[in-house]
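Hi C.,

You asked whether I'd gotten around to modeling the 261-residue construct. I have! Everything is below, sequence then structure, no commentary in between.
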Amino acid sequence: MTLPVRHPGHALTLLKAKARATADPSAASWPDRLAQDLRDLDADWRESAAVCADAAWTARAAGHSVLGLLSPAQVTAAGPDPVTTRTFRHLYLSALRFDFRCPTLQAVVEQLPETALRSLDCYSRALYAFALLGQSRPEGLAVMDEVLAEAGEHTKTLHVLLHGLWLGQDLDQGAERLLAFSARPAFATGTDPLVLFRRAGALRRLGRYAEGLAAIDRALDRLPPGDLAVHADLVRERSLICTARDLHQHLPARAFGGTPT
């Protein structure tokens, strides 16, 4: 997790807040404690996004999704202060994203009061764009462009948008858009396994199977050990690429009455 440093020790304090939030995901109080920590730190939206996304993922992986701890009412109603309101929103919307609940995520955001919608932070708008993109709704592309104008190369935000492009299988030129997006400066090192995974899927959709296999093999090599759920996704994508390649190679023989080999 990369965090901006506003003064000495600030990033370390944020990491400690994340560690407290993820120490016991089964404890019902951890979202409130995290909100208190971020409020004490006067965290901005970038810092909140970095901590909340990781905390929501850790809780989900441990079988204690924040969706069981927070209610939609806590997300759509005004909280006791702006930081707490944003913390709950980031946690809840991130959990919906990880579960691919795009229609629900869209509905929760659209149920926000008009004043909250007008002042919605950049990361929350990125999650809204993900919900639209994930349903292959073209208006998600416009929301994505608006988010990029503010977010720049903020990695957490870019990952949300890349995820939406990957999920939106029926977006116009979706695979081409994903490949272009994955080449942004924030992803320039070419070592992020999730970016490589999503690139591989786009290359498969474009029929560029050799490049897709090379990308997924790099992703498998770069994935940290022990990340079993993501490893399974990568292996599944590799199987899909191989299957698509084999079908493509056999189709001409079938079309002309030949015998596939």
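If it helps when you're writing up: The radius of gyration is 20 Å.

Thanks,
B.
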